[in-house]
Amino acid sequence: MFTVKTMMRRRLHWSFGNRTILLVLLEILLFLDIVRWWSGLGRHSESEQEDDAVVTSYVGDDCSIRRTDSMKQKSGRYCNAQCIPWNQTLSLNEDPIPEPSVERFEGICQGLDAKNCVKPFKTIESDFQYYWTLKPKKTLMCTIPKTSSQLMTAIMCLLNDELGFFYSGKEMFGNYYGPACSKHRVKSVEHAVQIHGPEVNEWTKLTVVREPIDRFLSGFVFACVRGVDFATNCTRYCHGCGANLTCFVEKEYEEMMRLSSGEQTTVDFLSHHQYPQTWRCGMDKYLKDYTVLKYSSKPAIFMPRVLEFLHSKNVSEQAMDYIKNVAMKERTHHATSNTNARKFFEHRLKSSPYLMEKVVRMFYHDFKTFGYPLPPGFE
């Protein structure tokens, strides 16, 4: 068998001559091939985990962002077929960005400036707000979009029928939208009390939150650049802005201020994915009762937090091992982190004081409530 050790031993017998450089180069190439083959055995490493859900390109007519994962969930065929070319995405973001309203942002959203910011703990009625009951573990989980809500929902569905799940050979992704799981979905804490009785008030309340700018960008790339696949079409919810980030930030700020003041009371799919995390899960009443997990797009960071919680609820080792293995190597097709499109828009946002000011004004209380530091320059 040819090995790297054999290769190096042979090289010791070669005499230096005109052919030596060429031979050494060939050896190096062969060695690199062996290394690549060996590293391929661990292809589901953390770094690759971040890249395998979607791919992007900066080349002309190539797709700006495309679903490529193998998850057995909703198909991405419509949004893939109607993909926005990268040169079109760039052309939509060539507009000059306005200057910010002030030169310094010290004291933003405090005192008299609070009127220019979105208020915290506003309860908005939405058909898209879900809670999931896990009666065997006395847990009520509230999902927040763009905080790994699909993964957490899949976990809850598995644990509600752990024996049936493993006996029937189901998969955590792909089977969890069925009627058998939907019966565990409720609209509010009060709704859960109606079904399971006042004991729900003593259950553990769980939710997952995400760094506000990270979550905002994820929602924008998901809804406006990649698009949302439905049964028969791809829809992009962008306030009529397309993939123009400046337009989208301005429209989002205006709408959230209307919702904050009560001028607007209803939300659509896009608003539901973007409005503040403090507006969700009945946090105006139950914030102190929640166990809050902080999301990370890196499974190696996020999953230990999830598993620690599951361990505290005496979830079986079999279930936890399965959840860990699946979550570490698969991601939902909504994932947008670490794509070129995401990197482009993150740079455009963070390099603009004007855009950052509006985003901070939208999510100031998310930063403060959940212990995330304000961006540099806004402390």
From TrEMBL:
Pfam families: Sulfotransfer_2
Residues forming coiled coils: none
A GO molecular-function descriptor: chondroitin 4-sulfotransferase activity
A single cellular component GO annotation: membrane
Domain of life: Eukaryota
GO terms, biological process: chondroitin sulfate proteoglycan biosynthetic process; positive regulation of response to oxidative stress
Key word Nucleotide-binding present: no
Residues that span the membrane, as ranges: 21-39
Keyword annotations of the record: Membrane, Transmembrane, Transmembrane helix
Name of the featured protein: (pine wood nematode) hypothetical protein
Native source species: Bursaphelenchus xylophilus
UniProt lineage: Eukaryota, Metazoa, Ecdysozoa, Nematoda, Chromadorea
